[in-house]
Amino acid sequence: MSAEKQERSADILKPYRERIDALDRQIIGLLRARYDVIEKVGVLKAQHGIPAVLQDRVDEVRENAAADAVALGLDADFIRHLWAQLIEHSCALEDSIIRNKKT
User: Fold this and answer.
1) d(CA 10, CA 46)
2) The whole model's pTM is what?
3) Which stretches within the chain are classed as H helix?
4) Would you give the DSSP letter of residue 49?
């Protein structure tokens, strides 16, 4: 692709890229808010001897996300995979909090 065509393409795509960047910042902010809650849940689980991973809840959260995705025209399997990663990391954080509270 020529330099001129690349520049023209960048100009055409610029407003969309800016919007994507803004949405990404919102997603990161929502993840931070989610993790604030997860940290509090980890403390509660540590105080009450509740394990980090409660499989019924893990399954419920993942399937709720998949159902919400379908309702919005998104791919349920992709969202299940994405949420599995999010949940895995969340449970690891809770586990870390629980282990640190025991020491």
Assistant:
1) 51
2) 0.86
3) 3-48, 55-71, 76-102
4) T
